[in-house]
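Continuing the series of single-chain predictions for the mutant panel. This is the parent chain; the variants come on the following pages.
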Amino acid sequence: MTDPVTRSIEAYLGRLRSALGKLPADEADDIVREIRSHVRESVGREGMARTEGVAAVLERLGSPGELAAKFRAHSLARAAQRSGSPWLVLRSVVRWACLGARGAG
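Parent structure:
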């Protein structure tokens, strides 16, 4: 049985993994591993109590949906760069613009 803090981290990561949607499985798994590691390292660095530290780090990351949208946009930008496809470049620019517009509001 896991403790409540570990469950909250894993619940966040589960929602993140779901929100990553159609990204290749290996890429999504890497993202989830990286975020898990980031949360653990950040809590240790800040010297906070574990419960408060995890809550603060997860809050700074934003909702799993918002974080996943950034990763999906980044993935699309990399694909556009590799392919040179004007359509992928346009989709990438539009996606980043939409993310920026949401953040500005």
